[in-house]
Amino acid sequence: MFACLRNSRASLAQVCSLRAYSRSSPVMAGPLFGTADSAATPAEPDDTRPSAMQGLAELVQSAAEQEQDAAALPATLLERPKPFSAGKFVSPNHLSREHRIQRIERRPKEPTMGPGRKEAQAFDAFRKLDIDPLDEYKNAVLLRSFVSEMGKIHSRAKTGLTWRSQRRVGKAIRRARAMGIIPLWNQLERRQVGRALYVSTILY
Predict the structure, then answer these.
(1) Which pLDDT value is given to residue 106?
(2) For 183, how many CA atoms within 13 A lie in the half-sphere containing its CB?
(3) What is the CA radius of gyration of the chain?
(4) Which end of the chain, N or C, is less surrounded by CB atoms within 10 Å?
C-alpha cells in the first residue's frame, strides 16, 4: 500500500482527506485523488475517458434502440414484406408498415370431432335412403369417396355420418380390401374403377 502511495503524485494531506472521506461516506462521489472541496462535490464526467456509468448508459440506450428496431420488423412469421417489382411506381405510402407487410392467412383446421346427432341424421344419406353401408362393400366407386389418397378411412368429422353408418362404412371398406376389390395402401384410381367393378360382379 505504501509503495502505491509513493508512486502516486498525490500529497499526504490529500491521501488523509481521501481516507477520512471514504470512512464517513460509504460511496465516493469525487475523483480518486483530489482536494477536500472536490471530494464533497461530485466531479464532472471526463470527456476523454468515459466512466463506468456512462458506459452503462450507452449499453441501456443501445438495447432500447435494438428493441425499437425489433418492433419495426414483422411481429410473427405469418407476416412477410411485399417485394418490389422493377419498373413499378412507388408512392410514399407504399413504404409504410401497413402497406409493406402482407399477412398470410392460416388455413382453417378441420374439426376434430364429428357433428351432433341431429345434424348427422339430417346429413347422412345412408339413413335418408335407408341403405345399409355394409351391403355396398362391392361398390368400389362409393367406397372410394370415404378413403384418403394414402388409404386411410376418413373420420366421422369429415364424412359427417352417424355413428352407425360410420362403423358400417369402415367394415365395408375392410371387407372390400380383404376381397381385393379396392387397394389396401392407396385410394382407388379412376382407371382402376372398371377393373374393380368387373371383379365385384364376376367373382363375387
Answers:
(1) 75
(2) 16
(3) 41
(4) N
Are 104 and 75 within 8 A, CB to CB? Answer: no
3-state secondary structure of 180: coil
| 3-state percent helix, strand, coil for the chain, nearest multiple of 5 | 50, 5, 45
Q: What is the full DSSP assignment across 17-79?
A: HHHHHHHH-SS--S-SS--HHHHHSPPPPPSSS--HHHHHHHHHHHHHHHHHHHHHS-SSTTE
What was the pLDDT predicted at 166? 95
What confidence tens digit (pLDDT) does each residue in 116-141 have? 999 999 999 999 999 999 999 988 88
Is CATH 3.40.50.12780 what the domain over 117-202 is classified as, yes or no?
A: no
Domain locations in the chain? 2-40, 117-202
Phi first, then psi, for residue 83 (nearest 5°) are -75, 150
Query: How many Å apart are CA 98 and CA 162, to the nearest integer?
Result: 47
List, in order, residues 6 or more apart from 160 with CB less than 8 Å away.
114, 115, 119, 120, 123, 124
Taking CA atoms, 181 is separated from 3, 115, 178, 186, 200, in Å, by: 102, 30, 8, 12, 6
AA letter at 48:
T
Please count the helices (runs of H) and the strands (runs of E) in the chain. Answer: 11, 2
Q: What nine digits make up the cell of 184? A: 389396401
pLDDT for 27-51, tens place per residue? 444 444 444 444 455 555 555 455 7
